[in-house]
């Protein structure tokens, strides 16, 4: 491992952090309160977001005392893309926590040999991000008419996106018990004055943006029509609200129109997983949108094994929601995931230290995976099974176990 640069100057604060929890604390210290609030909030009373993380703590390991392997392998692949470790960046919207946003994330992910999901609500264009990391999946919501969606898919295909992620598990609940952070329509003089009391107390965050001359805004360049301007977040949200929800026929249409590797994100039920197989998808993400969809949905790690048992030999399965350490990744792989997607964890790293902070998060997860494999006496993530875990009775939640005939 290279010598940390901060050692050359012992008087400079160490930018390296040893856990995702430390990255979160640094992000909270660095970011204006509304921005940090947007990164941690879940819907309604927050039951699901809490369970996403708490459920991992209910699972244990039974380590060996001797006979461990000297080398441990973590390589895998997802939708045809080789991965140096089983951790992929989950697509997250406008990343105003750092002026380089998704481009910094893409560079970090490329440096660590894995893949990135780019949101269609991203603050950077698909062209910029693919240039920084060719192993990029483009994510789309079901918004707009079919011609509009075809245009967005064609742009992503032309830019070189390796796959498409269709996110359908999103309702953007405003009913948060702790209140939703204020999101401005545009960032202008009046907005700057109104937010000044909250921003001025975060000089390092202000300085990062100030020295680039870039003012964070909430536009979505990947939703811009050909020759047109990018809509604001609220413009995109209005488009989503006025688009009729998709059917399974629409999912199949989207998959066929894309014509390449296709992931359906948001699956929590066995019957939905089986319908995804019927629709011909390449992969699914077992997801509840990080606790930002329907509150009261079980933690994704609780619903993973019943889904993997039902369809794991037919398509690739990933999981997102609650991943904070390498041992969490190992638990998900043991219960049937091929890889995991991370969201808040890398955004905290980005806020704490830009590209290096994202690399730091990935290194923390890699180290935790390696430690767990070492303790379990395994030489590869491919050897993980449920038998390597201590699973309490009643842990799993088998939702929607109706047969195909009953459907």
Based on CA inertia axes, which overall geometry fits?
A: globular
Structural class: alpha/beta
Poorly predicted segments: 5-11, 403-407
Distance between the termini: 53 Å
User: Helix-strand pattern, N to C?
Assistant: HHHEEEEHEHEHEHHHHEHEHEHEHE
Enumerate the strands of the largest sheet in spatial order, edge to edge or round the barrel.
4-11-10-9-8-7-6-5
Main sheet attributes: strand count, strand direction, barrel closure: 8 strands, parallel
**Multimerization status:** single chain
The overall pLDDT average reads 88
Helix content: 40-55%
Number of helical segments with 4 or more residues? 14
Rg value? 21 Å
Label this structure with key terms.
407 residues, alpha/beta, two-stranded antiparallel sheet, globular, disordered C terminus
Q: How would you sum up this structure in a few lines?
A:
By secondary structure, the protein is an alpha/beta fold.
Q: Your description of this structure?
A:
The chain is an alpha/beta fold. The chain has 14 helices and twelve strands. It has helices spanning about 20-30, 35-40, 45-60, 100-110, 125-130, 145-160, 190-200, 205-210, 235-240, 250-260, 270-280, 300-310, 325-335, 345-375, and strands at about 60, 75-80, 80-85, 85-90, 115-120, 135-140, 165, 260-265, 285, 315-320, 340, 390. An eight-stranded parallel sheet has the order 4-11-10-9-8-7-6-5. Helix 4 (about 100-110) packs parallel to helix 14 (about 345-375), helix 11 (about 270-280) packs across helix 12 and helix 13 packs across helix 14. The longest helix has about 35 residues, at about 345-375. The protein is globular and about 60 Å long. Residues about 5-10 and about 405 have low confidence and may be disordered.
């Amino acid at each position: 491992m290279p010598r940390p640069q901060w050692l050359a100057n012992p008087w400079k604060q160490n930018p390296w952090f040893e856990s995702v929890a430390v990255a979160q604390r640094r992000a909270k210290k660095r970011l204006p309160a509304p921005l940090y609030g947007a990164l941690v909030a879940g819907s309604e009373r927050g039951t699901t977001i809490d369970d996403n993380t708490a459920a991992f703590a209910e699972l244990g390991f039974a380590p060996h005392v001797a006979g461990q392997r000297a080398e441990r392998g973590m390589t895998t692949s997802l939708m045809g893309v080789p991965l140096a470790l089983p951790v992929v960046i989950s697509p997250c919207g406008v990343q105003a926590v750092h002026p380089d946003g998704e481009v910094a994330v893409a560079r970090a992910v490329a440096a660590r040999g894995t893949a990135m999901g780019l949101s269609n609500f991203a603050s950077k264009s698909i062209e910029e991000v693919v240039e920084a990391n060719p192993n990029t999946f483009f994510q789309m919501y079901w918004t707009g008419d079919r011609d509009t969606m075809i245009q967005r898919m064609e742009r992503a295909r032309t830019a070189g996106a390796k796959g498409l992620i269709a996110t359908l598990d999103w309702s953007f609940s405003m009913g948060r018990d702790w209140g939703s952070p204020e999101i401005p329509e545009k960032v202008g003089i009046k907005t700057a004055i109104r937010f000044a009391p909250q921003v001025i107390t975060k000089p390092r965050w202000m300085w990062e943006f100030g020295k680039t001359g870039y003012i964070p805004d909430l536009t979505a360049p990947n939703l811009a029509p050909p020759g047109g301007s990018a809509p604001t977040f609220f413009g995109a949200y209005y488009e989503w609200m006025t688009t009729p929800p998709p059917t399974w026929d629409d999912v199949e249409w989207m998959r066929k129109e894309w014509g390449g590797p296709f992931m359906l994100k948001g699956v929590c039920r066995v019957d939905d997983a089986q319908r995804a197989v019927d629709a011909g998808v390449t992969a699914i993400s077992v997801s509840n949108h990080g606790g930002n969809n329907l509150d009261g949905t079980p933690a994704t790690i609780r619903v993973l094994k019943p889904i993997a048992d039902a369809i794991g030999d037919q398509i690739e399965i990933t999981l997102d929601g609650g991943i904070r350490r390498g041992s969490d990744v190992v638990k998900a792989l043991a219960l049937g995931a091929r890889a995991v997607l991370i969201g808040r964890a890398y955004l905290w790293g980005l806020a704490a230290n830009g590209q290096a902070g994202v690399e730091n998060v990935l290194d923390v997860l890699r180290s935790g995976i390696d430690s767990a494999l070492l303790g379990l006496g395994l030489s590869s993530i491919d050897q993980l099974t449920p038998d390597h875990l201590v699973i309490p009775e009643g842990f799993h939640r088998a939702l929607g176990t109706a047969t195909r005939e009953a459907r």
